[in-house]
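Hi there,

I know you've been waiting on this one. I reran it after we fixed the sequence typo, so this is the corrected version. Both the input and the resulting structure follow.
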Amino acid sequence: NHLGMLGELSVDSTLPDDVEITEIYLELIGFELSGSFLENSRQELIEEKDGWKLIKLMKGSEDNASPSRASVSKYLENSSRFNWQNDQVNSINPSVGLSGLSVVDKVKYLLDFTNSFIEYQFTLDASLTEIIENKKGDCTEYAQLFVTLARLNGIPAREVSGLVYGYGEEDSKFYGHAWAEVWLEGQWKEVDPGWNEFNVDASHLQLSGAGFYSYDDKIKLQTFK
């Protein structure tokens, strides 16, 4: 599952890494990939037919969080993956730095803390203890530690996954990626501790829970701005 999520899909055109992109229009080609597309306030379905979807992705902002009527209490719960009762998690909790901050600023502080705490290294299914001891991990470890710390500090949070564009590389590709959502002012907002982004880059393509895609699936870039 970890290896599958961190797979890659080529895209036919390149996105520049020297300008801020606020909107991207993509064609998702293939039944598994197009079927896994998830609509939310940042991801819009424009057109669809069997095995094909034209979608619009937007850069994250305070204005495009997703409201929900469902209870969010479970996203504060302790679990084996997000074990905020772990003594080592509590020992690194930056409670002093969080003191007196607004919830939004707490989220920003925890994003920066997590991003600085972990050094990027591809890692297979590290436990929280291993993440804290080794201070290494890939996007899944950044997301795991961030969600755990958010819950520890009373902020509902959950891990999400999908694909994200690899800027500055010779080959144009979308890579499997994990990030997070936090519950702010009655809405789910995407944030990315691996990229230290409170407003996620427009190339983040969140997929549904299963996040299935085939290596025969394709992504085509229509346009961006």
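Quick highlight: The longest strand covers residues 173-184.

Best,
R. S.
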